[in-house]
Amino acid sequence: MTLSRQLGALTNHGTEWVLWLLVALSVLSLAVAIERAVLFWIGLL
After folding, report:
1. Which of 10, 17, 21, 44 could pair covalently with 39 via S-S, beta carbons 3.0-4.6 A apart?
2. Are the beta carbons of 31 and 39 closer than 8 angstroms?
3. What is the tens place of the pLDDT at every residue in 2-45?
4. Domain extent listing, the chain
5. pTM for the full model?
């Protein structure tokens, strides 16, 4: 196995959970932004 294949296998191994974490955090931040906007518009903030 060449060095470039070893490095490629190392960087591609186990990265899917990071993408799912980023998606979950994006959804969470969007939910917080919507909640704050609703509270702002009804005058509670």
Report:
1. 44
2. no
3. 877 876 776 777 778 888 999 999 999 999 999 999 999 998 76
4. 15-45
5. 0.64
